[in-house]
Design goal:
The chain has 70 residues and is mainly alpha-helical. 33% of the residues lie in helices and 0% in strands.
């Protein structure tokens, strides 16, 4: 049985050591739009991946992408 850990920021689950799980680079933009709103990653298809968007934007993390769009 999987052990559940308390949720952290953005309702993301924490790992066993308390770290908030990072979004994987293969996470679909559609999934992230469900979490961050329809305006997230405008200009990208919903079936694009986070890794593709980060690469094209020249960024290294979801956090950087979220800051850039503000």
């Amino acid at each position: 049985m999987a052990k559940h850990y308390p949720k952290g920021l953005d309702n993301r689950m924490k790992d066993h050591d308390g770290e908030i799980r990072k979004k994987r680079s293969d996470t679909k933009i559609k999934t992230l739009r469900d979490e961050y709103g329809e305006q997230f990653a405008e200009g990208y298809r919903s079936d694009a991946t986070l890794g593709t968007v980060l690469e094209r934007e020249g960024l290294g993390s979801l956090k950087q992408l979220l800051k850039k769009k503000k």
